[in-house]
Design brief:
- With 198 residues, the protein is mostly helical.
- The chain contains eleven helices and three strands.
- A hairpin with a 4-residue loop joins strand 1 and strand 2.
- Helix 3 runs parallel beside helix 6, helix 5 runs parallel beside helix 7 and helix 6 packs across helix 8.
- The N terminus is likely disordered.
């Protein structure tokens, strides 16, 4: 009887480890590819807060010295359909934004650039949501300066457009007065004010 209970306990622990991923002795995190791939397909077929939450729970909760082992086809599939996640984020769906932040944990260079643009653009029109989730997920962001200053301009070298975009973001941040967001707001304002328009 005790042996049976012990086996059930061990199976349960192993299952929890593999749900998000486990750190291997070599410093790598192995994700459950099957469930992650299925959860992404389910989300892109039926994007809503519940499918987003399921996906969020399967992604690594933080970044560290470990290297995430992810099949290329799974990453490519996620990258190819980021526009679905993007539209959900811009509609104000919080869990979609949570997913975007956690995707930094498995993203390669190209996906990181796309995520920075998607999340950064939210700052100008849904500033409170941006700050609330940034406060929780800041450790996942590869470069906060790039995120805050990720201007999506038709002419990236146009100084007037850059200055206008910076002012829009500073003005949006100025409207937020929540005490719990004060420090992260200050950090974003400092980055924008110190940005050198070239």
């Amino acid at each position: 009887m005790r042996l049976c209970k012990l086996l059930v306990l061990l199976i349960g622990v192993a299952s929890m480890c593999f749900q998000v991923g486990i750190a291997a002795p070599q410093g790598r995190i192995y994700l459950d590819m099957t469930n992650l791939g299925k959860a992404w397909d389910e989300y892109t077929t039926n994007p809503n807060k519940d499918t987003a939450l399921k996906l969020y729970e399967l992604l690594p909760p933080g970044k560290g010295p470990q290297e995430v082992e992810l099949q290329v086809d799974v990453r490519d599939n996620i990258f190819s359909k980021l526009n679905i996640l993007e539209s959900q984020i811009y509609s104000g769906e919080r869990n979609a934004l949570k997913v975007a932040f956690r995707l930094f944990g498995i993203a390669d260079g190209e996906m990181k650039k796309a995520l920075v643009k998607i999340i950064g653009y939210l700052l100008r029109f849904d500033t409170r949501l941006f700050l609330e989730e940034l406060l929780i997920h800041e450790t996942l962001v590869p470069d906060l300066g790039q995120l805050v200053c990720s201007f999506q301009l038709s002419s990236p070298d146009d100084k007037i457009q850059q200055e206008l975009e910076r002012n829009i973001r500073l003005k949006s941040l100025g409207y937020i007065e929540d005490k719990e967001l004060k420090d992260i707001k200050k950090k974003c304002i400092k980055i924008l004010k110190e940005l050198k328009i070239q």
